[in-house]
Amino acid sequence: MAFDKTREFGKEAEMLKVLGHPIRLKIVAGLCTQECNVKHIWECLGLPQATVSQHLALLKNKGIIEGTRDGVEVHYAVVSPFVRRLIEILDAAG
C-alpha cells in the first residue's frame, strides 16, 4: 500500500484499541467461530458475568459485535469484516 495522506484510519484505530485487551481478543476469537450468549462466554473463559458484560458492551459500542435477542437471551456474533480478518491473521500466525 502506498502512502495516502487522504486515507483515514480512525475507525480501524478505535477497533484496534478496543481489541488491545486480551480478554476482548479471546471473546472476539470465540465469537468468530460460534455465536453464543453471555453465559456461555463467561463459563468458557471462567470470568465473572459482570466482567464479560462490560467487555461485550465495549465491543458492541465499537461495532465489532452485535447481539440478537432470542427470548430472554442475547446471542452475540462478530459483524466486523475487518475484525474477522484480523482474527484469521492472528490464528494463522499463532
Automatic annotation (TrEMBL):
CDD domains: HTH_ARSR. Keywords: DNA-binding, Transcription, Transcription regulation. The keyword Oxidoreductase does not apply. NCBIfam families: HTH_metalloreg. This is Winged helix-turn-helix transcriptional regulator. PROSITE patterns: HTH_ARSR_2. InterPro entries: ArsR-like_HTH, HTH_ArsR_DNA-bd_dom, Metal_resp_trans_reg, WH-like_DNA-bd_sf, WH_DNA-bd_sf. Residues 4-94 form the HTH arsR-type domain.
